[in-house]
Amino acid sequence: MSLLELKKVCFSYNHRNILENINFQMNRGQIFCLIGPNGSGKTTLMDCIMGILPLKNGKIFLQNQDISQLSSKNIAQNIAYVPQIHKKTFPYTVEEIVLMGRTAYNNMFASPGLGDLFIARDAIKKVGIGHLKDRPYTELSGGEGQLVLIARALAQQTDLMIMDEPTTHLDFQNSLMVLEAIRHLVEENELSVLLATHHLNHAFYFENNGLDTVAAMLNHQKFAVFGRPGEVLSEAHIEKVFNIDCRIIDYHSKHSLKQKYIIPLKTIN
Amino acid sequence: MPINKPEITGFISKEKKYYMVFALLIILPIVAIFYSLFIGRYPLSFLDILKVLRFGINHQSNQDYPDIFNTIVLQIRLPRAILGAMVGGSLAISGAAFQGLFRNPLVSSGILGVSSGASFGAALAIILYGQNYMVYFFAFGFALLAVSMSFFIGRIYRSTPAIMLVLGGVVVSSIFSALVSFAKFIADPYEKLPSITFWLMGSIANARYRDIFISFVPIAVGITGLIAIRWQINVLSMGDKEARALGVNHILVKIITVLCATLATAGAVSVSGNIGWVGLIMPHIGRMLIGNDNRILIPASLSLGAVFMIFVDNLSRSLIGAEIPLGILTALIGGPFFIYLLKRTKGKGW
Description:
The complex is a heterodimer.
Chain A: E1 4-13, E2 16-26, E3 30-35, H1 42-49, E4 57-62, E5 65-66, H2 72-76, E6 79-82, H3 94-99, H4 114-126, H5 142-155, E7 160-164, H6 172-189, E8 192-197, H7 200-208, E9 212-219, E10 222-227, H8 229-232, H9 235-242, E11 244-252, E12 258-267
Parallel strand pairs in A: 3-8, 3-9, 6-7, 7-8
Antiparallel strand pairs in A: 1-2, 1-4, 4-5, 9-10, 11-12
Chain B: H1 4-36, H2 46-55, H3 67-101, H4 114-129, H5 134-154, H6 162-186, H7 192-201, H8 209-228, H9 230-236, H10 240-245, H11 250-272, H12 278-290, H13 294-318, H14 326-345
Helix pairs in contact in B: 1-3, 1-13, 2-3, 3-8, 3-11, 3-12, 3-13, 4-5, 4-6, 4-7, 4-11, 5-6, 5-11, 8-11, 12-13
């Protein structure tokens, strides 16, 4: 049984087609990297999968259930979301933020209970930020803040996690921190992750580390290419979708097999 | 499992603190009400008050003290303190809820035009019927009308983004302010205008049990609703999309929050007149004392607002010979505090 299945998904906004005929399946323990230029519809596709935007055509199945028939509470018990930009207003503590991941399991007029608190604390520990538990999340670094949101998604105890460019605005160390956290979650919890990213090398990062990785390049409302990162992210495909000249190099480290990296060179007009 | 042990004890101490805070929040307003029985122009000793509480409540005749003591304590000071607690609590809890809903720590209970609507309703009733019970109903009715207008203006785009609601509130507030000015302009300057002006400054000096009964239902419903939904307000303050992804029916929660906060505020202002600043400042004192988690902040604001209003009302009747309108005092205390607040938060949150 596939975890997530999209069949002929179309979405339009103001009579303009944003997505046309998107088809794919996602399995358990898989990482699905959604790649595409700015404005190619990555966020729209993720919003459709979360049931936030209604489809024009086609169907989305979550564990064989039609997503348009599910309540937001029901969807939240199956899909967790890590946003790209999070506007911080009130200085909630890390624990309070992560506890919000338990909302879908409680009655509308109830607050989370003791069991929820333990699950939240467990999630905090799993992403390795136990020492930040009582800190206001407004004071954390970008990477730590992102880990808090990942912990919140983890506390939702879903099989699928959707992440919208989880490493934007992060420096090298913080990006790697987030990538490693995602890797551990997939390896240890059999979680599936669908993530949109501008960093094509991130798709290679997961593949290089031996995870079941799929990459799809979204361009002109459609999937231009779809498959293993090693096949999808070729010099020819990248040139076609991003209009850039690039090289893909193999790097042999001491301990691992050969690892692939993309080096962007120049734009093509 | 040795690893779990500190976790569990950590939780219990947190729970203990939680209950202690709650106990304090319940006790403080009661203490404030009791204390305010001593405040007033007519000097009563501690013993007098105790006697009144002992005998007067049971309507027992007692030769020890004159009947006027009963009247002052039970018919004037006590209802005034209770109404003060209800009004202050309602304004503060609504302010806290709106701050969470609009994701902006600088909004208050009047953000959707509830106070300006009530002001116009009261002015209209005073012009049409004079100073009688109609003032309550008009104030309450127009308060609800103003908020409904803001809400529907905010829904022009078929969704309820917070900024649209706030803009709706700004528009509706200014319309009703203009109408209040117009009402003052046409009002009889010797009889009606002073009543309107005085109402607009806010007072609970003439509070009787009747006022408590009139405002009790909307205030009780509003407060209960806000307390029930306080966790969802936490989640909603993450923004609509995230709240939805976390499983919150954001439109329903918004409607419930706006409805309950409006009921509580409208119930309060219809008996007390316009009292500003409480709904802005009390939630902030709460934030400084116990943090931003609405699970505690919402009930804490209720309690702090009640205590603050009793305190201000005590000042209002004891500072000078005449009663100072509450709106003046809350603004005089609130204004400087607001500046301090801006300095402390460095203007963040706008």
